[in-house]
Amino acid sequence: MAAPAATAAELEAQGFRPLDEASLVAYIRATPALAASLGGRVDALEVKEVGDGNLNFVYIVLSEAGSVVVKQALPYIRCEGDSWPMTRERAYFEASALQEHGRLCPDHVPEVYHFDRAMSLIGMRYIKPPHIILRKGLIAGVQYPLLAEHMAEYMARTLFFTSLLYNSTTDHKKRVAQYCGNVELCRLTEQVVFSDPYMVSKFNHWTSPFLDKDAESVREDDGLKLEIAELKSIFIERAQSLIHGDLHTGSIMVTTDSTQVIDPEFAFYGPMGYDIGAFLGNLILAYFAQDGHADQANDRKDYKEWILKTIEESWNLFQQKFVGLWNKHKVGNGEAYLPAIYNNPELLSVAQKKYMTSLFHDSLGFGSAKMIRRIVGIAHVEDFDSIEDASKRAPCERRALDCAKAILKGRRQFESIEQVIAHVRSITHD
Amino acid sequence: MAAPAATAAELEAQGFRPLDEASLVAYIRATPALAASLGGRVDALEVKEVGDGNLNFVYIVLSEAGSVVVKQALPYIRCEGDSWPMTRERAYFEASALQEHGRLCPDHVPEVYHFDRAMSLIGMRYIKPPHIILRKGLIAGVQYPLLAEHMAEYMARTLFFTSLLYNSTTDHKKRVAQYCGNVELCRLTEQVVFSDPYMVSKFNHWTSPFLDKDAESVREDDGLKLEIAELKSIFIERAQSLIHGDLHTGSIMVTTDSTQVIDPEFAFYGPMGYDIGAFLGNLILAYFAQDGHADQANDRKDYKEWILKTIEESWNLFQQKFVGLWNKHKVGNGEAYLPAIYNNPELLSVAQKKYMTSLFHDSLGFGSAKMIRRIVGIAHVEDFDSIEDASKRAPCERRALDCAKAILKGRRQFESIEQVIAHVRSITHD
Fold it and tell me: Do A181 and B180 touch (CB under 8 A)?
């Protein structure tokens, strides 16, 4: 993947040392911004390691008077038993994106209290219980009545305000250049989303033997390969907005009245549709997983309807909010649609429809690609993995895969999210 | 346009002083790389100022044993009587692009002998007589039998070898970030190509009163405005290759057996189609100008046919060479079309056709936009301006404008360059 991992001595020379619970406490005591987040009460701290140890250390730190989450990036990622060197600089981009998106959408992004670039360490707001990872809530069958509204707001604000619809080309290019530095994470996405699932790769796996033929058919589908090449180009070449870059349902923490987006370490200037697609695609995965979670107590039928309604509302509210921001800020620094050119409401409205249709098709393409890679690629989703019986899991995954393939190839035929949902529903019922 | 121009004192503090003939000679004598280009014979130099004084000083320097061109960027551009501050840093991007494109295509790009960033000064190979600017040759009705072959080679090599078809994403993003710095020149293009012609702007002019209605109809053509918005987005957002950025027929010097591309100060990572379109669009302008240059001695009919043939061959040879490079380098650092995925010749061939069709439509779009702005925007072309009788010039310009509007709006319907040429021809004959 990349250059070999630095040795411990090299890391130390760079000012980096991985913290454990004891050294973390010393670090906090020596760091005013972190001490302040704990109300200055740093004598008796409670520390809990909650990271999965695959990419980062994540500690929850509590005092009598406050709390903080401390996240430290490690110089590698562990994935499926392999260890890949991976730049710690991703912490810089994560902190930068949290700060920028947090400024634009403070209700749905945790505040950054402290960032230490040499240590690859971020101190940020602790998102307290009863917040849980959305994916776990979707598996448990919990409805989040405000999820669509909140995510539409988050996506509309972060994507609009970092696009050329709002910013001058000068500001835009400056930020694009900055985030070009996060290329190692972009390359990881390129590999695991746009390449590996479509070729023989030791990293791929699937529910075998049930999906052997399905995985093979992905690798032999020329139509799919033509579409994925186009999406891969857009992903790398098109600097449209500062995107989160990994906006699946594992990057979102929720309660019934709060939605918080975390972990933007893949952030860069890329296509807006990649974020929207990630969110919608992962909801569709959750939908297809429900049959595997159904039992006599709960057939999950109502819950499946709620997921579909959430998908529908997420796109429709996003679209409405995004166009609303566009109309509100049509006179400003943005140079993409100058008022002197798009000088009548009908023309602007047609231009907006064209823009949103193109964004819709991008979102469907990227969303489908994200679904496919979760079934036949390296990293799967707990939605399916938690269905223990493989003979029960496989048909759920197959429906999701078939759905994704059809949407990816036929995305330009869909004119509304309702049509997409009708398609999703049609696959379930056969 | 930008920040106010620096004062003379500020410029001096930056290490910049505009050279005149006397100080240029002193500078050359003190600069080994320039002295060497003159064979070390720097005692009796012949210096000729050949720049138009609008953007840069350009000096030809000759000794008994050698020659060099010295180009110095000024901190402003003069255009139509107005003076705009314009970063001297464009000299850095021009030198960088000359070096990079020169490495990739040495036959058609002058060597850089010396670059002085503080002085915004480039010393490069003197492109000797009988080389003339291609545009002047096109006005004079001179045929260049190798032009299509040479330009196809130049475009194929510079665009292919700086794209993701050849380079790793890591190298690509590094260079994209570097050229984001040339944003002031990008903004100038945005304004003069993608904005001003479609709105009321004091910078616009046209052959009045003949084309008053035509200019107005551009400003009121909603279909055109929808298309130009899309092209503008692609221009700013899509970092496909290191493009020249200003590849019109005034940036090319020719003899019957040599073709040299100069002046890439607008270079940045942008859409390939912008370069291809600039070249083809300016040839179409030259075609429509021929009726204004016809006289009893020469009806220019044969010459018009030669221009059309050159357009046809330029695209077809470009396509052939570009796909040839792709096939030759399909196993390499490029990650866009991995051999393990595009693993049979038929699939790769279909993928290439899809890629080239999309590039063709981009080129037609950008080429048309470049034509339109030369008729109703700020900077016109000598092809038309040299037709002194306005009543004779206006119908030529109108045909070019009508042709460009139709191609811009209908570009996706064209399947081959032959169809485009049939369309160009149909407009001439009505």
Answer: no
